[in-house]
Amino acid sequence: MHPLSPALHGAKSLVVVIAGLSWSTLSRVGFGWFAALVTVFVLAATVLAVVSWWNTGYHLVGRELRVHEGLIWRRTRAIPLERLQAVEVVRPLLAQLTGLAELRLEVVGGGKTEAPLAYLSVAEATALRQRLLAVAGPAREAGPPAAGEPPAPAPAGRRLHTVRNADLLVSQLLTPQAFLLPFGVAFVATQFLSEGSWSFIAVASTLTAMAGVLLQPVRRVLDDWNFRLDRDADTLRVHNGLLETRVQTVPLHRVQTVGVTWPLLWRMKGWLRLRLEVAGYSAAEPDDRNRPDRLLPVGDTQAGELIVAEVLPGVRLDALPATAPPPRARWLRPLTRTAVGAGLDERVFVARSGLLTRRLTLVPYARIQSVRVTQGLAQRWLRLATVHADTAGGSGAAAPDRDLAEAWRLAAELIERAHDARRRRG
Fold first, then answer.
1. Residue 133 in contact with residue 251, Cβ under 8 Å?
2. What are phi and psi of 25, to 5 degrees?
């Protein structure tokens, strides 16, 4: 790793140590002893960081990346590159100030990010990313689209879309948190004025609650700042972030599903959100903020159509089939029966859901790992069933509350199309 790596790890340890000791410790022992404790802990953390840096390294052997670490207990992790799903170059604020970067790998079946190499120079991280993707193997090209379908993907190295920061800010203002915040402030202020309880605890707890409400939209703005999407040969490259910049590289043939979302308040502006599922992300990153799966944080229908055509050639958002469950399913879905649906496109399995926030999930047939038909007790009474199309990413898509005979036909058709798609891809 880069020689400055221990300094960056030590700086993070300093924040953790000060937060752990807290101000109550300062008030009890005094400033001198507090400074001494902080110094001892920071020196110890720095020594450990230097020892860890000295005994950590990586080695590319054939089609494996081997990461060596540990002093007393030596450990070597071998990561087969054919399982490589995506590679990220991440630059936290301290790394940006020192010209360093962290390389993160996502692999099939990984419970978390594999082999986070921290820290490398930006040039070394970029070169290693390109080398790993080259060793992992290029994607195979899809066949040409038929007449009337979207145009072929853009040539390599082309900018596909850039999200305006103004649109990003407005999109987060059109969220339930931001929309209801003035009512919450008015309610709290009315309570204080009527009861006269301007105690420190009451004010602090109120400010903390408001900060918690605002934290998620603010984080999304910081994470998606200067969002850019590029097409580079057989990969997509996503650039985003303000305080922590990310450059995510995803081979197109590794995409498991594409999700399209139309939030309720965004529909007045015709906006939507796109996400992709790459194996290793969805299960390991339950926090929406930490999931590096953004394909389009906010954009209009035209931008969505263009990007979907790049990721799934030949698929059109305005021509996807999706039929609702039979009328008797209203006993299980009195309000949302017509909002859910499923269908078979020529290239993808389509699943629709959501009443206020509309969602569409697209699963390429070649990415389907298994097909399941499930029935609950109420579904058995109503002769209904749910068909699941599972992917390596873990979530896949489902067609809920279908007629029982239709569910079995749909499952058989999904299996046949998945086999055909895999044979065509070799």
1. yes
2. -65, -40
Write out pLDDT tens, residues 186-212. 766 666 666 555 555 555 566 666 666
On average, the pLDDT of the chain sits at: 83
Which residue has tokens 């279908």?
402
Query: Does the structure show a pLDDT above 60 at 281?
Result: no
Neighbouring-strand partners of residue 402:
385
> What pTM was computed for the model?
0.79
Cα–Cα nearest to 283, from 401, 135, 172, 395? 395
Position 392, amino acid? A
Task: Please report, for the chain, how many H helices and E strands are present, in that order.
Answer: 9, 19
Half-sphere exposure (Cβ direction) of 407: Cα atoms closer than 13 Å: 23
Rounded distance between C-alpha atoms, residue 141 and residue 120, angstroms? 33
CB of 115 closer than 8 Å to CB of 79: yes
Angle at 97 between CA 92 and CA 101, to 5 degrees: 45
* pLDDT for the residue numbered 74: 81
